[in-house]
Amino acid sequence: MRRELPLAICFIMGVIMTVQFFIPHRYSQWLFENMLRWLIIVFTFALILGILSLIKLHIQKVQYRRRDWLYSIVALTGLGLSLVTGFMKGPESISEGQPFMTLYNYVQIPMQATMFSLLAFYIASAAFRTFRARTLEATLLLIAAVVVMLGRVSFAAIFKDLSLGFSTWVESWLPGFAEWVLDYPNMAAKRGIMIGIGLGAISTALKIILGIERSWLGGGD
Amino acid sequence: MHLSTDIFIWIAALLTLCIYSFLYKDNPFYKFAEHLLVGVSAGYLFVIYFWNNMWPNLLIPLRDGFGILLTEGRFTGNLAALVPGTLGLLLLTRLIPKIGWISRWAFGFYFGAFQGIVITGYMQAFILAQVYGTFMKGGNPVFSLVLMGDFFTRPAWGPFVLAVSGPLMIAGVVCTLTYFFFSTEHRGFAGGVAKVGIVFLMIGFGASFGYTVMARVSLLIGRLQFLIRDWLGLIS
Question: Which of A36, A53, A147, B116 is most enclosed, with most CB atoms within 10 A?
Answer without folding.
Answer: B116
